[in-house]
Structure formats: C-alpha cells, structure tokens
Amino acid sequence: MTQRVANVPVNAVSPDPTATVRLHVNGEEVERTVSVRMLLSDFLRHELGLTGTHVGCEHGVCGACTVMIDGRAGRSCLTLAVQANGHEIRTVESLAGPEGDLHPVQEAFKDCHALQCGYCTPGMIMNVVSHLEADGDLDLTDEGIRDMLSGNLCRCTGYLNIVSAVRRAAELTEQSHTEQAGG
C-alpha cells in the first residue's frame, strides 16, 4: 500500500523563533526578519536574490559559498544570518563595474580559461579577491597559490588554469592599482 504525503502547504510558516537582522550587503544596507536558524547563504540567495553565492556541500568544505565578511573570505553556509547582523558582506555580484566591466580577478579567470562548469568559480573568485585586497605579500608560486585555494574545491579539475588565473589576477590587480595611482 502506498503512503500518501501529508497535505501541508508548501509555504507553511516556520515555528522557529525569528530575529531582525540588519547588514550591509554589497554596499547597501538591508534589513529583514528571518528565522534564527537561517544560514547566511540562504539569506543571500532567497531573501536578497543574490544567486552568485553557490551552495555545494553545506558543510564548509567545498568553498562554493565563499563571500567576504568584513573584508575576509568566509563560508556563508557555516554562518547564520543573525551572526552576520551588523557586518559588511560582499558577494561576487559586487565585483563587476557599473558598466558591467569585469573585476581583474574575473577577467583573469576568463582570460586563462579557469571557469570550467563555473559552479565553484564565484567562491574561488571571492577567496582570491580577499587575498589580493589583504595587506601583505602573496606567495604566487604554484605551491603558494594552491595553498591559497586549498579551501575551494573544483570537481572539474581545472586547477592548472585556476593557478594561472590567480597569478594573472595578481598582475592585473597590480596594473589597476598603478593606473589608479597615476603611474
């Protein structure tokens, strides 16, 4: 005998406690009332429609959900939306210029054919941007770049091109800073 599924509306209201969160996402202040169990990744995707933040493993292993939290790479699938209250969040959507011109890291990934299927790409790009914007020298040897990317997994095995793209992104970022400084 076949068991029938209970007739429960899809949009049932959760009995979870809620909290109001206010954060700055891609330079814009947003405020929402959400379940205290809502993940930041779900908040970004479902509350704000920022679907560039991908959800892969939901265990913090794959890095597809990487965003920048107060200027540092962080896993949005391991962060509750209420934990992000009052913080600055940047997603991959924040990178392109006003005319749609690509960020140097995006340009490098395109130029070096480091996109493959593209599922891991936004998280990788945000990780690389975080490193490039941080103070300090980067180790741009193959080993150093692989270490930088060790928290991001690519199932398409595009790592050779991704390593090349990170090195190229560092060059393009340096060129961009030099041009902005008038040099």
Low-confidence stretches: none
The span between the termini is 77 Å
Report the order of strands and helices: EEHEEEHHHH
* Tally of domains: 2
**Beta-strand content bin:** 5-15%
What structural keywords apply?
183 residues, alpha+beta, Ubiquitin-like (UB roll), DNA polymerase, domain 1, five-stranded mixed sheet, 5 helices, 32% helix, globular
What can you see in these coordinates?
This protein is 32% helix and 15% strand. By secondary structure, the chain is of the alpha+beta class. It has two domains: 18-94, Roll (Ubiquitin-like (UB roll)), CATH 3.10.20.30; 104-180, DNA polymerase, domain 1 (Orthogonal Bundle). It has a five-stranded mixed sheet with strand order 2-1-5-3-4, sandwiched between helices. Strand 3 and strand 4 form a beta hairpin. Helix 2 (104-111) crosses helix 5 (159-180).
Summarize the structure.
The protein has 183 residues and is of the alpha+beta class. It folds into two domains: 18-94, Ubiquitin-like (UB roll), CATH 3.10.20; 104-180, DNA polymerase, domain 1, CATH 1.10.150.120. Helices cover 32% and strands 15% of the residues.
